[in-house]
Design a protein that fits this description.
single chain; alpha+beta; 5-stranded mixed sheet; 5 strands; elongated
């Protein structure tokens, strides 16, 4: 009979080799996730069901037509804000901060004018529906736009003396950057 210890030793070595190296995947502290989410749901006056909207466009002001145009223009407006060409004023409308020369400048003016026309129509309809003054709706929308703006975008901020000034929204708790250049008057 042959000794069986070499075969057993070889078998034990192979089985030990299959275990692999232990890897610790535990974290010293629990993972922390910080998420902020805001959802605003509005029921606009005269809003139609989806199947009724397919029949034709609404003729009532402040309904789906203005909202649809604003949604389709959203990327253009954000691009203008990211380029620091336009900002949100204290009436809930856009203002041109810096007008580029040439055809692009005309494009910026036309886009801002179309956006402001739709915002104005929607705010007037909301004021009528809620039976509040247009100024109340304008200040609420302006506050909403300031809150939703991204750091670095131009917004109008109220000074302690009641006047307004253009500032770039800050990312943290620091003082916002104040514009040193004059802003053209609203049209």
């Amino acid at each position: 009979m042959r000794p069986q210890w070499p075969a057993r030793l070889a078998l034990a070595a192979m089985l030990a080799g299959c275990r692999g190296v232990p890897v610790n995947v535990a974290t010293p502290r629990p993972l922390e996730v910080d998420v902020t989410l805001r959802v605003d749901i509005f029921q606009h006056a005269g809003a139609q069901p989806a199947d009724a909207a397919a029949d034709g466009a609404s003729t009532a002001p402040g309904t789906a037509d203005e909202a649809t145009r604003r949604r389709s223009r959203m990327a253009q407006i954000q691009s203008l804000k990211n380029s620091r060409l336009v900002g949100e004023d204290h009436t809930g409308r856009l203002q041109i901060i810096e007008r580029p020369p040439g055809n692009y400048g005309r494009y910026v003016e036309e886009t801002v004018a179309a956006e402001n026309a739709d915002r104005d129509t929607l705010m007037r309809a909301e004021a009528a529906t809620r039976r509040v003054s247009l100024a109340t709706v304008e200040s609420e929308r302006a506050r909403q736009w300031r809150e939703r703006s991204f750091p670095g975008e131009w917004v109008e901020e109220r000074r302690s003396n009641g006047t307004w000034r253009w500032v770039q929204k800050s990312a943290g708790s620091g003082e916002p950057r104040v514009s040193t250049e004059p802003v053209p008057p609203a049209r």
